[in-house]
């Protein structure tokens, strides 16, 4: 029997994926602050949870938020808004599983394509996206406010 517990870290992660809820916001916001230079406010998160074009999911391990991800689906295209995994759980496959689940949500919501931007220096994330089938289609120069780094534009088609 396979255990769905984070006590298996180092062996195999078995997260539970579900839609993000208001009760998750404290943990999501803490993770957002850990993962991004520009963490979102509670008001922004509350608007996102009520946004009809948005789908936000969380990954739970041992009943704790281990990661989150979200898309906006407009006119048949899903735009990845954010993907984050707790620092202590990175490089163990959770980002890949979370991204695959997010892609499934995009297809379920009617998207025919998924797009995202990722920092040029974030090779780990680019590798995850490539493993999910995304292809680089160019770079937006000077995209990120904090470092003026370019963003790699990636696409995945159904």
UniProtKB/TrEMBL annotation:
Question: Which segments constitute the N-acetyltransferase domain?
Answer: 15-158
- UniProt xrefs under NCBIfam families: rimI (TIGR01575)
**Keyword Hydrolase belongs to the record:** no
Sorted keywords for this record are:
Transferase
Instruction: Return the protein name.
Output: Ribosomal-protein-alanine N-acetyltransferase
Q: Which Pfam families match?
A: Acetyltransf_1
GO-annotated molecular function: N-acetyltransferase activity
Q: Which InterPro entries match?
A: AcTrfase_RimI/Ard1, Acyl_CoA_acyltransferase, GNAT_dom, MshD_Acetyltransferase
CDD domains according to UniProt: NAT_SF
Which organism does this record belong to? Answer: Succiniclasticum ruminis DSM 9236
**Superkingdom as given in the UniProt entry:** Bacteria
């Amino acid at each position: 029997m396979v255990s769905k517990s984070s006590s298996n870290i180092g062996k195999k992660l078995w997260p539970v994926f579900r839609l993000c809820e208001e009760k998750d916001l404290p943990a999501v916001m803490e993770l957002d602050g850990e993962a991004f230079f520009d963490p979102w406010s509670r008001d922004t998160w509350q608007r996102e949870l009520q946004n009809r074009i948005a789908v936000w999911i969380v990954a739970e391990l041992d009943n704790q938020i281990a990661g989150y991800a979200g898309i906006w689906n407009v006119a048949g295209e899903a735009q990845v808004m954010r993907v984050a995994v707790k620092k202590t759980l990175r490089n163990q496959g959770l980002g890949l599983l979370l991204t695959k689940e997010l892609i499934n949500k995009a297809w379920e919501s009617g998207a025919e394509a998924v797009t995202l931007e990722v920092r040029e220096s974030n090779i780990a994330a680019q590798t995850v996206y490539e493993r999910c089938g995304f292809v680089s289609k160019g770079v937006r120069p000077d995209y990120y406010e904090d470092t003026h780094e370019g963003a790699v534009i990636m696409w995945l088609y159904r």
